[in-house]
C-alpha cells in the first residue's frame, strides 16, 4: 500500500547544474509505515476572485491527525484543455499566502492538518480555472 | 531563454484502482508566457535541532513566481524539520520527504523558516526566482 512521489527538475540557469531527481515514499510520521488515508483526486473549478477553501480541515469526514506527515498535491490545470501561464491562483494555509500557481504549475507541500489550517485558493482574475488536488494523511 | 522544468509523478495504490499522476511545468516569470525564471540558489546544509533558520538568505523579489524545492536527506525517519511561513506552521518534512512550492515571499516576514527536530537534519534546497536584492558588503 505505497504512495510515492518523484520529482525531476532540470534547468539551464546555472552552468554545471545537473538537475534534481528525487523520490519519496509517503509514510506515517516518524516511521517507515506507508501513509494510509487519502481524500482521493478531486477538482475545483474557480470562476471569480476571492479565497475559497480547497480543504476545510474541520469538515473532513475522517479527521486527519494533526501535525504529522500529511502531504498535498495541487495543480492548476487550466480550463477545458487550455492552460494559461498568465493566470495565477494563490494557494494559502490558514489565510497565509504560500505562493501562486500559474497555468500548469503544481506543488507538493507538507501540511499540519490542524483544524484552523485550511488550504485556500484565491484566483487573481475572474477567468475560469480548475485546480486538481489530492491530500494524503493519517487518520486520527 | 533560461528554461527550468519541474516534473512530478505521483503513484498510489490506496484506492481500488491504482492512481498515477504525471505533470510537468515550465517555470516562467510571473504572468508571462515567454520569459523563464533566470536566477537560482542551490544549497545543502546541516541544521542542528532546536533553532529556527531562514532557509533562503537573500529573499527574492516579493510576489513573483519563485519556486522552492526542499528535501530532508536525513536517513533517520524520526528526524524532521518543521516548515513555517510568516509564523504560520505549514507542515513537517521527515527524513526522505521533499516539497516543491511556489514561494510568494510577499513581505519581509514571509521567509521560509525551518526548525530541525530529532538531531542534525541534512537539508538540500533549490530556489528558482527572477530577482533578489543582494546585500552589499
Report on this model:
- The complex is a heterodimer of chains A (140) and B (137).
- Chain A has 140 residues and is an all-beta fold.
- Chain A has one domain (27-137): Jelly Rolls.
- Helices cover 0% and strands 47% of the residues of chain A.
- Chain A has strands at 3-11, 20-25, 37-38, 42-46, 52-55, 70-76, 88-93, 96-102, 106-111, 119-123, 129-137.
- In chain A, the strands form three sheets. In chain A, strands 3, 4, 6, 9 and 11 form a five-stranded antiparallel sheet that branches. A four-stranded antiparallel sheet of chain A has the order 5-10-7-8, with no helix packed on it.
- In chain A, strand 7 (88-93) and strand 8 (96-102) form a beta hairpin.
- Chain A is globular, with a radius of gyration of 16 Å.
- Chain B has a four-stranded antiparallel sheet with strand order 3-10-5-8, with no helix packed on it.
- By secondary structure, chain B is an all-beta fold.
- The interface between A and B is large, with 64 and 63 residues.
Which ranges of chain A are low-confidence, i.e. pLDDT below 50, for 5 or more consecutive residues? none
Query: Quaternary state, please?
Result: heterodimer
Strand content of chain A is over 45%
Report strand order across the widest sheet of chain B. 3-10-5-8
Question: What is the averaged pLDDT score of chain B?
Answer: 92
- CATH class of chain A, anyone? Mainly Beta
Helix share, percent of chain A: under 10%
User: Count the helices of chain A. How many?
Assistant: 0
Question: Which architecture of the domain at 39-129 in chain B would the CATH scheme give at its second level?
Answer: Sandwich
Main β sheet profile of chain B: 4 strands, antiparallel
Outline of the structure:
Chain A is mainly β and 140 residues long.
Task: Throw out a few tags for this protein.
heterodimer; A: 140 residues; mainly beta; Jelly Rolls; four-stranded antiparallel beta sheet; B: 137 residues; 10 strands
Amino acid at each position: 500500500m505505497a504512495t510515492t512521489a518523484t520529482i525531476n527538475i532540470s534547468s539551464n540557469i546555472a552552468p554545471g547544474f545537473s538537475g534534481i531527481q528525487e523520490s519519496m515514499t509517503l509514510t506515517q510520521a516518524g516511521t517507515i509505515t506507508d501513509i494510509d488515508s487519502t481524500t482521493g483526486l478531486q477538482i475545483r473549478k474557480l470562476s471569480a476572485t476571492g479565497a475559497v477553501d480547497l480543504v476545510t480541515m474541520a469538515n473532513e469526514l475522517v479527521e486527519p491527525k494533526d501535525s504529522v506527515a500529511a502531504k498535498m498535491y495541487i495543480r492548476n490545470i487550466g480550463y477545458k484543455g487550455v492552460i494559461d501561464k498568465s493566470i495565477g491562483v494563490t494557494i494559502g494555509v490558514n489565510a497565509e499566502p504560500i505562493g501562486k500557481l500559474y497555468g500548469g504549475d503544481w506543488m507538493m507541500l507538507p501540511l499540519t492538518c490542524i483544524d484552523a489550517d485550511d488550504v485556500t485558493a484565491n484566483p487573481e482574475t475572474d477567468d475560469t480555472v480548475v485546480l486538481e488536488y489530492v491530500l494524503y494523511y493519517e487518520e486520527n | 531563454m533560461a528554461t527550468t522544468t519541474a516534473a512530478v509523478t505521483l503513484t498510489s495504490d490506496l484506492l481500488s484502482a491504482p492512481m498515477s499522476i504525471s505533470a510537468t511545468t515550465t517555470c516562467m516569470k510571473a504572468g508571462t508566457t515567454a520569459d523563464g525564471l533566470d536566477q537560482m540558489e542551490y544549497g545543502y546544509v546541516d541544521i542542528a535541532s532546536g533553532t529556527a533558520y531562514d532557509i533562503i538568505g537573500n529573499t527574492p523579489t516579493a510576489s513573483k513566481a519563485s519556486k522552492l524545492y526542499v528535501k530532508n536527506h536525513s536517513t533517520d525517519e524520526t528526524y524532521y524539520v518543521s516548515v513555517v511561513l510568516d509564523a504560520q506552521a505549514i507542515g513537517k518534512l521527515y527524513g526522505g520527504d521533499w516539497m516543491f512550492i511556489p514561494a510568494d515571499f510577499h513581505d519581509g516576514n514571509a521567509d521560509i523558516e525551518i526548525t530541525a527536530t530529532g538531531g542534525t537534519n541534512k537539508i538540500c534546497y533549490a530556489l528558482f526566482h527572477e530577482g533578489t536584492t543582494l546585500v552589499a558588503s
